[in-house]
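Notebook p. 47: complex prediction with magnesium ion.
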Amino acid sequence: MVPDAQLALVAERIRDAEHPMKVLAAEDNPVFRSMLVSMLTKWGYEPVIASDGNKAWLALQSPDSPRLAILDWMMPGLNGVDICRAVRSSCREPYVYILLLTARNDAGDLVEGMESGADDYLTKPFLAHELRVRLRAGRRILELQEQLLAAREALREQATHDCLTGLLNRGAILETLDKELSRASREGRPLSLLMLDLDRFKQINDAHGHAAGDAVLREAAQRMKAAVRGYDSVGRCGGEEFLIVLPGCDGAGAIAQAERIREIIAAPPVADGSRSIPMTCSIGAASRSLPAVEDADGLLREADLALYRAKDGGRNRVAGAPLPALV
Ligand SMILES: [Mg+2]
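Predicted complex, structure tokens below:
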């Protein structure tokens, strides 16, 4: 049986051959430079060459720039240590792993090199296999960092999104409402809020089962997302209740938008396997221009009252918070 470590190594080699990793080789000495290039190519990397410090810095600024860099310390233009400092002060993500090449052997110099932000160093002249293992170590660090970034992204997604529908969750949509409301009041622009509730959702669950209920919620979420503009936000508040934040939209605009969403939710019925499940919704609309609205709570209260009126009026309809003149 082949040990796991060996299998992992084979997998790594196959991946390297298919997607060679870019490595910046910044070296002003043409002999060293061509040695670096031939070694990197032989080991399955894709060398990106720079013959001085300024070119190296430019290569690190380019889109899709190398994330692994071999920098000679002494170069015309920016030297290796200058580049390390510049890379670190830009705090960019993803991380650039820097291996500094130095002819210097003085301990004080090496400390300066590492303190400038280099991750590792090699003293010239060095053996090929030394460089190879150092690069391998750098690459592992980068891979670990990638996994950490992906895990952080997944956690952020989990913390802010509803796992059934993929919409913002209650906390995140309320936070969005707060943020958009303060922006609207700062800029003196309108903002409206829709509170949407799927009609008789309990009956759908009772008649068709919870899996069908989930399919209806997911479909409703997709239709809402498709119906709104790119800068609107849709969130699931819990159960079958949703909030839609409409920045820049006044009361009349909100009613029109709500009416559109109501129609899109209602037709066609949700197809769940061979079944066709009718779905409608009621929507309450409120706008920040209403006198009773001072903050997010006021807006939520008004939208909730309007939703109640829509339900009371027979469902599958839109109701707006009444303006004082109409009350
Ligand atoms: Mg040099």
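Notes: The chain has a mean pLDDT of 89. Residues 28-29, 72, 74-75 surround magnesium ion (CB under 6 Å).
Next step: compare against the earlier run before touching the bench.
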